[in-house]
Design brief:
Blueprint: H1 12-23, H2 28-55, H3 61-72, H4 77-97, H5 103-132, H6 134-145
């Protein structure tokens, strides 16, 4: 079950899109990346947790993982860039269908208009994926922390 606290972070319409994309298998690549990310970054996550506890002694490991994911801004830089390129290619195609063939201007406009929102959506999707397997990830981190 996904934590209800996500309602504070992910707007309901976006959450519905994420759930639908997951159900259709569209997030399998990101889910695999999350599974590889957690063991690879566990020492960093635990350090982040200890630092967080210096200013917020009641902070939980779960809250620290969520904050770490959001602060990292990416889990897979290469894949993120590839996925952004694909989005830009779709926009170039779409604009071409409307008669706009200035690829450089289309790419520049996409970056200016959509890149930030794309990144925010990506990070919220990753947070949702973390929440789906939160117990598994926390168990792994607790085992290392003990």
């Amino acid at each position: 079950m996904v934590d209800e606290r996500l309602a504070d972070v992910i707007p309901s319409d976006e959450l519905a899109e994420i759930v639908q994309e997951y159900a259709s298998g569209g997030l399998s690549k990101l889910e695999t990346a999350m599974g590889a990310y957690m063991p690879r970054r566990r020492a960093d996550v635990l350090r982040f947790y200890e630092q967080m506890r210096t200013t917020a002694p009641d902070a939980t490991l779960d809250a620290a993982v969520c904050a770490y994911i959001l602060s990292s801004n990416t889990l897979t830089p290469r894949e993120d860039m590839e996925d952004q390129r694909e989005e830009i290619k779709r926009e170039v195609w779409y604009q071409g269908e409307k008669g706009n063939y200035d690829h450089a201007a289309i790419m520049s406009e996409w970056i200016t208009t959509y890149a930030s929102g794309w990144r925010q959506h990506r990070m919220r999707t990753l947070l949702w994926l973390y929440q789906r397997r939160r117990e598994q990830y926390l168990g792994m981190l607790h085992a290392v922390a003990a």
